[in-house]
Amino acid sequence: MANPLTLYVPIKQDAISQAGAQLAYETFVKSVKTGLDASGIVHYARLALIPNASGQGTYAILLITAFDGPMNPYLSFFWTNPNTQKAFAGIAQVALNPPVPPVTDLTGFENFINENNLSQPADLYQAYPQTVKEIEAAFPHKTVLPKHK
């Protein structure tokens, strides 16, 4: 059964934080693809920017994922990835309310994510019961070779 993560992090309103959030949004898929593929448990992941009420700038970052298994083992997989730690440090740097004390270990990472997660497992509608691994086994990726002329 899949579980949801809806990580909601209001951000600072200075130019550097705003630019950082925009860059994270623009590079999200490219920057997380390898790690998410390697996890073998993530169904979907996306990053959205919540606009300020004025329509100018970003109020918050919203990271939305659906993954197999319970939350903390999911978080543990990502904490051990240096790229995830770097991305998390970027989020903490632009956060309006950064983690106190600063996150330096898995427990701190789990606490910050769980405290800022807007979703619970019961919130997720699921149309199918298969895991990512079961889906990939049933529908293997096919390499498409270029056609020769």
Task: Report how far apart the termini are.
Answer: 46 Å
Percentage of β-strand residues:
15-25%
DSSP, total strands: 3
Which spans of ≥5 residues are poorly predicted at pLDDT below 50?
A: none
Bin the helical content.
Answer: 40-55%
* Total helical segments: 5
In round numbers, the mean pLDDT is: 91
Q: How many individual domains?
A: 1
Name the strands of the widest sheet in spatial order.
1-3-2
- Radius of gyration from CA coordinates: 17 Å
**CATH architecture classification:** 2-Layer Sandwich
Sequence-ordered SSE layout with sheet pairings:
Elements: E1 2-10, H1 15-39, E2 42-51, E3 58-68, H2 71-79, H3 82-94, H4 106-115, H5 132-138
Antiparallel strand pairs: 1-3, 2-3
Helix pairs in contact: 1-3, 2-4
Can you put this structure into words, describing what you see?
This protein has a single domain, classed as Alpha-Beta Plaits, CATH 3.30.70.100. It has five helices and three strands. Helix 2 crosses helix 4 (106-115). The N and C termini lie far apart (46 Å). The protein has helices spanning 15-39, 71-79, 82-94, 106-115, 132-138, and strands spanning 2-10, 42-51, 58-68. The chain has a three-stranded antiparallel beta sheet, covered by helices on one side. By secondary structure, it is of the alpha+beta class. Helices cover 43% and strands 20% of the residues. The longest helix has 25 residues, at 15-39. The mean pLDDT is 91.
